[in-house]
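Changelog entry: the SET domain-containing protein record was regenerated in this release. Current contents:
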Amino acid sequence: MEPLLRSIPLGLKNMIMSTDVSDLRSSCAALDLHFSTSLLFGQLLEQLVNTFQSSCAKDASVTLKSKLDGNTALKISKHAEALSAYTKALRFAPYSSKEEDKLLLATVFVNRASILHKLKQYEAALRDCGRAIDVYPSYSKAWYRRSRIKFDVNNLEGAVVDMKEALLHEKTGSGLKQIENEIAFMETKLTTRSLPSDITTQLDLELKTIQREGLPDVQRLRLHWSDERGWDLYTTEQLDIGSLIFQEQAYAAIVLKSNRDTHCHYCFEVLPVDPVGCCRCAIPMYCSESCRDQATAMPVTQSLNLDENHKSEVKISESPPVKVHGEHIHECGGCAWSAVLPTEAVLAARILFRITQRAGILDNDRSPKVPGDTPCTEDRSDRQYYLTRIRMIDSLCSNFDKLSSNDKLEMHVLGVIVAHCIQQSSNSFMVYGTKSAAEVASKLVLLIAQTRVNAMAIYRMSSPEEDLNSTAGMAFCTVEQVKVAQGLFLLGSSLNHSCVPNVHASFKLRCLFIQSVSTISAGSSLELCYGPQVGHMSHMERKNTLQERYSFTCKCSACARVSSSDLFLRSFRCTKQGCMGVVLRPDLCDFHLTYSERLPPAVDEEFISEEHGCGDSSFGNFSKLPRVYPGSCDQSLGRTCVSEKDFQAFTYTYVQKDAVPDTDFIESEFTKLMARYKTDGRCPDCGSPVDVETAQEIANTALSQLQSLVEAAVSNRRCFY
Ligand SMILES: C[S@@+](CC[C@H](N)C(=O)[O-])C[C@H]1O[C@@H](n2cnc3c(N)ncnc32)[C@H](O)[C@@H]1O
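Regenerated structure tokens:
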């Protein structure tokens, strides 16, 4: 990416960096034209779309090597190692109608089943045997293994049936002898024992089913437009605390690169011990065939009939099953682009894929924003509903014009790369109509920007890792929230941010659940926290985080007034042992600055700074501020010390007054308090010099050490209680 960025001529760079959303077509066309003669771009594209060079292409030699690794590990009882080697072997195993490919696949499934059997993971072991039988029905060892597992779970009848099937397919003399002995032994058992229930019959019931896409209940929700915050979702009815306001399936979603080997690429749950891979490429892992089929919009049986070059996929793609979006299929086929490009670019491609799949066309001109009070869904008949939703993609805000010039440039390069990757991937079936790569790229650039602003992080609670080499089981005590995927939820993305949110988001499979965390009165906006929250971060940190991450300045109710937590978050105790003095950080004045601009100039002339005015315009009317505040510009003057008594008196009044106190009250109290102190950098109680920056550094170091300890403890995942 870096060399490609460097290769862009300065004039073109400047044009792209200063482009706005209405110029995207011309800026993308100019970049596309430049890349069309660039050797570097051609080479990169070749790497991204060439199935033969790709690291994610299916490769029987990797399967054979991993299978051998698994066998070696098994011999020395390294079960966990053997299991992951066989899973890797399956990941790379080609799915084709060739005899040798089918046999290889079936062999590895049976090998993995043997380990799972040893580990008493009966359900998973039975599933793997079933997979082997589906792929290669005359593979005796698959029937044999399944019979042994059924025997161990007391399904003696099933065990005998499978063993007899194994006998039918066995070709070696010694094998036949062994199977006959097994049948005789099992039949004796069968006549002497009454049988408990069959675990295998329960399996089907227990198999996870993914919720079908349902329409959220949005009857009581409306969208409202304001120039300050764009679209805002509000309720027409009062909502009680804890109400489920709506639930919504992801429009498009993608697992994070860091979770590719641990979570299902479709439902994002933790992978079981017997994950299944994609039939065409070696990247995605799914928890079940059901997830795989939904991600690729193709049943396994069809996958097995693919010829070597996967050409038949094109036929399937011409008539994708209704209601199944198969978001992985268009980017799959053994080429690397979707595996190596940044997640947000691949997610944007998935969104584009879905738009074209639904609408049948790619059209940039649809639906300009219409500010006003608009119901989210007027007509919920299927077609109209989806048209409304597609229209909403165009109306998702991108904050494009507020992006940094480097972000704009990077998004342009990604947009052009992805547009070409999609067009050159052998199995791509996006419908572009008459659109050129540059036009597709301009749509992608906008989608990447929209994805950045609107996509939500999908979280999972971490679940216990089983110790596969121990059959004794283990106690588990660490539970943590892990960010596993990124998804776009159309209705969810109309929720604005607040640093004191009134709704909470949670996820199950690919579904978003929005619940109220307080009583929300009719007509109020539903506000979610995008991350920075009062009590966790100071006003300045919240402001910077939102600006950096989402390119907007927060206009929520909490940022429109002083929050008591800011005071606590930005203060230190004097570091001298036994001293109770409290030292406030210089940047505590950040919120003071915000408010003082709205108030009459500071009254006490003694504290008006003349000599320390730094001329930094970001500090607004700096010369009118009390002298105690210039610490933010000049650190040597920035020690604002307050005696414990005053601090307590102030915070007491503050907290007692109201949890979200009256701004003017706080402002005047705070100004009065600050005005009593000089910036001499000393603790007011003991007179020791106080270095707030050093104190902050010490606190940060201690925090990161603590964090490392927690991480070490979590990764160890052992706790005895
Ligand atoms: C996920 S969208 C929310 C819906 C958005 N208002 C719209 O019109 O599509 C996030 C964007 O909404 C705007 N926004 C959200 N919360 C805001 C807030 N508290 N203050 C100002 N703008 C906000 C910002 O432009 C932000 O990038």
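The domain at 60-190 is CATH 1.25.40.10 (Serine Threonine Protein Phosphatase 5, Tetratricopeptide repeat).
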